[in-house]
Amino acid sequence: MKKQTKYLLGIGALIIVLVAAVFVYNAQKTTSFKKLITDKINVNEISAIYITQRSSGEEVRQDEIKIEDREKINKLMAEFNKLDLKSAHDGKIKLVPYTYTIRIYVNREARFGIDIFNKFNISLYDSSKTKNRLREYSTNNGEIISKLENYFK
Questions:
Q1: pLDDT per position as a tens digit, 36-86
Q2: Which of 9, 101, 102, 151 is deepest in the core (most CB within 10 A)?
């Protein structure tokens, strides 16, 4: 009986360790926009944000706006800061009617690039990095897309 109890305790401990390892592994794959972008800069040093809207239909159209107003920059960055991101390498990106490219200029230099392909796929570019400058993530950015659409109405 005592041997059986030791085996059961050993198996229980092993299961707990495995569950913890899976949790830690998954936690490392998730991050946030705030951690990747906003925490690396002083938001007040953002000099401009360019937003480009491209149609992905048969007739390709491209419009671009420039945001320099401090209040609008802060509002847009606050929206992006809400995004939780999960590492993704999905080559099957479904394009929607419009895709968005956002370039963030810090002290008048292009520092970050953001490509939003659809409601679930986003890529981030950090020009300050020497390796892995471009990273792809999955997220639910439906709210961001609707906010960006409002700039072009």
A1: 899 989 999 999 999 999 987 777 788 999 999 999 999 999 999 999 888
A2: 102
